[in-house]
Design a protein that fits this description.
It is a single chain. Helices cover 0% and strands 53% of the residues. The protein is built from no helices and eleven strands. The N and C termini lie far apart (40 Å). The mean pLDDT is 95.
């Protein structure tokens, strides 16, 4: 029943910004735990950011200080604001549900009850 749809990807120059969106349906937002992951060909998915209903956020080390995850409950939309983009950020980006708590969501499999993925949106950062 959970349906996630990402959008906002594209091609940008290094140093520029991009905001990704994930429209959520079939998932109660009174209690939530959501995240963003990214993947490049031949590699596993890398945790980028997570947020839960305790107001806690978690970020991957490579994006701390540059990316911000937020949830607009009224619009049922999860966002990932990406600033100061680098070529290394080039990847397919996916939003995901359902973790238990954000602090361990990016590195601990046990922090996830189930994993629902969106279809992904591709980001290319040119040097």
């Amino acid at each position: 029943q959970v349906h996630l749809v990402e959008s906002g990807g594209g091609s940008v120059q290094a140093g520029e910004s991009l905001r990704l969106s994930c429209i959520i349906s079939g998932y109660g937002l009174d209690s939530y735990c959501l995240g963003w992951f990214r993947q490049t060909p031949g590699n596993d998915k890398e945790g980028v950011a997570a947020i839960d209903n305790d107001g806690i956020t978690s970020y991957g080390e490579s994006v701390k200080g540059r990316f911000t995850i937020t949830l607009d409950k009224a619009k049922s939309t999860l966002y990932l604001q990406m600033n100061s983009l680098k070529p290394e950020d080039t990847a397919m980006y996916y939003c995901a549900a359902d973790c238990t708590t954000a602090p361990q969501a990016l590195s601990t499999p046990a922090a996830w009850r189930s994993v629902y993925w969106g279809q992904g949106t591709h980001v290319t950062v040119l040097s």
